[in-house]
Amino acid sequence: xxxxxxxxxxxxxxxxxxxxxxxxxxxxxxxxxxxxxxxxxxxxxxxxxxxxxxxxxxxxxxxxxxxxxxxxxxxxxxxxxxxxxxxxxxxxxxxxxxxxxxxxxxxxxxxxxxxxxxxxxxxxxxxxxxxxxxxxxxxxxxxxxxxxxxxxxxxxxxxxxxxxxxxxxxxxxxxxxxxxxxxxxxxxxxxxxxxxxxxxxxxxxxxxxxxxxxxxxxxxxxxxxxxxxxxxxxxxxxxxxxxxxxxxxxxxxxxxxxxxxxxxxxxxxxxxxxxxxxxxxxxxxxxxxxxxxxxxxxxxxxxxxxxxxxxxxxxxxxxxxxxxxxxxxxxxxxxxxxxxxxxxxxxxxxxxxxxxxxxxxxxxxxxxxxxxxxxxxxxxxx
Amino acid sequence: xxxxxxxxxxxxxxxxxxxxxxxxxxxxxxxxxxxxxxxxxxxxxxxxxxxxxxxxxxxxxxxxxxxxxxxxxxxxxxxxxxxxxxxxxxxxxxxxxxxxxxxxxxxxxxxxxxxxxxxxxxxxxxxxxxxxxxxxxxxxxxxxxxxxxxxxxxxxxxxxxxxxxxxxxxxxxxxxxxxxxxxxxxxxxxxxxxxxxxxxxxxxxxxxxxxxxxxxxxxxxxxxxxxxxxxxxxxxxxxxxxxxxxxxxxxxxxxxxxxxxxxxxxxxxxxxxxxxxxxxxxxxxxxxxxxxxxxxxxxxxxxxxxxxxxxxxxxxxxxxxxxxxxxxxxxxxxxxxxxxxxxxxxxxxxxxxxxxxxxxxxxxxxxxxxxxxxxxxxxxxxxxxxxxxxxxxxxxxxxxxxxxxxxxxxxxxxxxxxxxxxxxxxxxxxxxxxxxxxxxxxxxxxxxxxxxxxxxxxxxx
Amino acid sequence: xxxxxxxxxxxxxxxxxxxxxxxxxxxxxxxxxxxxxxxxxxxxxxxxxxxxxxxxxxxxxxxxxxxxxxxxxxxxxxxxxxxxxxxxxxxxxxxxxxxxxxxxxxxxxxxxxxxxxxxxxxxxxxxxxxxxxxxxxxxxxxxxxxxxxxxxxxxxxxxxxxxxxxxxxxxxxxxxxxxxxxxxxxxxxxxxxxxxxxxxxxxxxxxxxxxxxxxxxxxxxxxxxxxxxxxxxxxxxxxxxxxxxxxxxx
Lengths: 382, 461, 250
Fold this sequence. Notes:
The complex is a heterotrimer of chains A (382), B (461) and C (250). With 382 residues, chain A is α/β, with parallel strands linked by helices. Chain A has 2 domains: 128 residues, no CATH class; 166 residues. Chain A contains 4 helices and 38 strands. Chain A is flat and about 90 Å long. The termini of chain A are far apart. Helix content of chain C is 69%, strand content 4%. The relative contact order of chain C is 0.16.
């Protein structure tokens, strides 16, 4: 045996073995003492955070010295490879293209077919022509997005936002007063004191109807005298019902009461739940499957479903709604109150018919869709 | 064929089967997390669910960290009218009591509770203080945690679901750079939460309530009999009792909170031995009722057993390895059983273990954690954990033979020197580290009721 | 159009696996496994040649090539013939090496707390070999037997590795072709590195006898397959990280 050869080989082999751990060791040395993973402990959820943050940054950028000053008073500032154009009012002709951040210190108008690759801040009213494409826009007045406009990120205004037909806002739409969703408009989420779809002339915006007064109650007021028959009338098989905590019940299977119902306790349904029209739900309701709330019903508690949720015509809800599938708000649905906003979320598409008013937020894991297209879908589904 | 060879073969087959089952589970979790659907995500509802909350912070000789956690909780974005922070001085002999009294005097939302005697351990302290809590939801934080401003809102949101009895957030080690072990534990925690807990939540299985950075409904806690003050892992015990009674546990991946990971192997070894013993106790106490439970689906039952029995994989692995060692030296085995020997090595070494590392790697990828390159060094941590778990289970089962064991609560060592400035308020801490989002800090202002508003809104009110 | 540097919070990041990618991963893994099975003979032959070359470079004496049977398929394959001394040839060698190694392990055990369980693992292997030598001094473990066990284990690794690395690289790395490249690299490395490790083991046995046989088999055998797999995986992830974190899920 050649001892030296083997010693050399063994050394090289050991080095190769160590090499498998070398990168790991180097990584540890490099990250030793480093800051931990980036949790943002200051994070506070604000629905219009992006817009507010953008406005704040703009106010800082305005302190930059101008790179260019034009005779009409327009200034161009430079910030890290991007340009910011500051002007009084601004009007863009149809099919204009801009690669600059726009700070408009008055009203803003863009013709149809424009392309704005950077953010826009308008201190006055902003009107975007049909078919335009924007990065993001914040208006300190009202905001009108023409038909077919596409916003790549967020849209915000301090007043009323009108999202035109077939518009798309790929991130949040937030407004200080109202958001009107025209038919075919799509947003990822819409938040405002009032979010509404197209209203009929006869649909009042603020009137609150009386509460329904269903005859049946659950739990029954007098359990001793209730009997099996009564429970069966409620659509409950007693063998499948059990108590869940001091203030709730759990039902194995589908639950479809035959008559309008007043639900006074929390209920978890391990199946689908279909509530007749005119029901009054005073506590939280959850179904693993789908929830169908009949027309004219009122839900005071939260409504949660693993599947789809549908609120029938004229329903009202005052708690949060969370659907693991689709969420549909039929015509005339009202949600929340100005002083107590609510949130409704559908992991799949959230569809909103005409005449819906929500005080608070509509959000979806895919998109919120308003109006006529939903009728097309319903017709297709027969 | 000799009985020894037969016995070794059987052990190998069992080892391969058990570890392959866990490996498949890990693979499923990784796939689920990678392709995560948002159906159970409730983050869009944050801020719209606002029950009354009592935050319990048990402290036993926590003068180093007490100020940090209390300051962070006081700085949380939640309506003070619906919030109480109950700081529990649990038989402390240092300045913990004084510190919590100072906070109680300064902030009406903080209540100081002093416990001078009684059974040791965290569950006993929680039971004592819980009786004084008035909130619908009880949130728990260990003293070494630093919750962010939105933590309370994140954690209470899933309680809009009436089936949810408890909620768990995510724990992120803040001291991953302090030692090699802490760095490896950061990777391990990432896998456990980012992949394991999240996948179990998404798949409707059994996420675990971890006893900190989490919460439970007060009414539910009472309904299931309160805290098990004799358990070493009262959180695991509570999780399974909740599930047995028909409640669910929700996991909130967004609710991230810093913790201090053990920096030395001695501390880590004690921690993991406690977990192994506690889990195994729960397994023995609950497995029969778990299998018989009508409130659980088959998938939940299976996953629950995997969770409770997870520490058994260490001695199973060691047994399989010993059986391989025996077969290795038996000449009769080589001619026909080398296949089994080789397969067993692959089964429990390669295929089984790599699934765990797959979780570590995927979690690091999702987190963007540059320490992912340290993955090969995790093997040493893995060996260490295996040894510690085996030691714990040996003591547990031998203790069962020779009489009930004497459970000692060992407080996990704290490394930080708390001064109230390490937390969520964006101040630099003693190490000069800045944390927080400067934009948010400038944008926000706190209203008198504790809620954060935008400065513009605040000017209007 | 949308700004590229914006990416979602890590709690909602996802890299969904498309059906196409999953199908491609399965096809790749199946093809590699089939390829290994189909060309088992040539691959094992190549393995032997690398081992022999390494043995020669390392100055380890080797006799005529022998043959060992690696399962019924691929059957008999060539193996290096390296003499391994029995305990009886030099009765002092084993005890001296045993206690020296134990002393070294004890030292590491005291100095590196994190490695204690691993050291215990090695110690048990060492003691097991020591026990065999004491109980059965004439116990022999020839190179052919060792290579047979080794090749059986490694061959199965080569068959299963495509499936493992399909998961690790092809499904989880953001860039598909990078994943494929890593998968192929690991497969090639598996063969090469197995041959080199085997040569080292045979060299050590030639010098020390059977004392280190179980230790080296467990540590440098299939366990080390996991080590290099992890090393490759960590490297792949580390390189993919900047791109992955910057990507946005639309």
